[in-house]
Amino acid sequence: MHVSLKLLNEFTEGPDKVENQILNGDSSEMWESADPTKFIPWDDHKAWVEHVREMYMNGPCVHNVFKGHSGSVFLPLSRMVMGSDQHLKLDKDAIDAARQSTRTRENQTLERNVRTLKYMFIHNHTSPFEHVDYTFELSMPIAVARQWMRHRMASPNELSLRFEELKLTEENVFVPKHYRKQSDTKLQCSSGLMPTDAAKEAAEVYKKSIESSTQSYKTLIDMGLARELSRLVLPTAVHTEVIWKQDLHNLMHLVKLRTDSHAQPEIQVIAHVALMMTARFNPLTFAMFTQKLAVHRQWNAKLNRNLLENLILV
User: Cβ-count burial of 106 within 10 angstroms (0-12 exposed, 13-18 middle, 19+ buried)?
Assistant: First the structure.
């Protein structure tokens, strides 16, 4: 099964399945275990056309709302402006932008559109993807949001706790499902789970700290201390809410970095979900991007080089 349809099927069955797989440390499996013999060769345009048509049929089943342990993602469908080609939807906007230089936008077949998008991917002609925008409503722990915000080519608006008092609930304070160990080889990464006894002790310390700091916040608010000062005692486990607008070019760059196995698992979840939500509106871009990413990750895993060269020419 092509990696794009594999991801879509897992997402359609239930987004929580994707989250559980990532939090259990199996995120690379979605990319590196895909069968490369079933990838679509770049020059087989008819196969790409059939793949896009199949994705178009699956598209309406794709969720636009995800609410999981790591956070939530909502893609307001009212914000999406559909393209003119029912199979390509917003892919056509990027393709038309690429053809602007030659004035060849009209009366193109689906196969010609596949060829054009393939050319854009092979030659890294990425600026046309900036003509397609996505707006997500995100909720995630502050610590995760600070990593997400490092992707500066976007337009974010975040909940302000200067204006709004935070209503603390179990849903908007992050408590890990699994307590992971610090990696011995990578400074920024976790690696495997803590032993059971140590994990229980860590969970007690973690939860006591959360309870203490959130109670201090409530007490300071009740005392009349300004919200802008009271918020400073809150832990970075508290969820923040962000409206995030980003063009497709920069969204693909974000996804490439934040779905990597070295990224924090909680941000991997949000990035995977955002990626899969684009499949409804950019089915061809989604298909080519996910295959390209899988091929490169398998290339790094030292699979057959000749096979991979046939699959992608970049």
Answer: exposed
**Residue 10 pLDDT > 90, yes or no?**
no
Which tokens belong to 29? 């499996």
Q: Which of 180, 231, 258, 280 is catalytic?
A: 258
Per-residue pLDDT reduced to its tens digit, 74-84:
988 776 666 55
Distance of CA 141 to the CA centre of its chain: 15
pLDDT at 170 over 90: no
Give the whole-angstrom CA distance, residue 162 versus residue 164.
6
Active site residue 258: yes
Q: Write out pLDDT tens, residues 230-239.
A: 999 999 999 9
For the chain, give the mean pLDDT: 86
- Mean pLDDT lowest for which of 25-34, 109-118, 256-265? 25-34
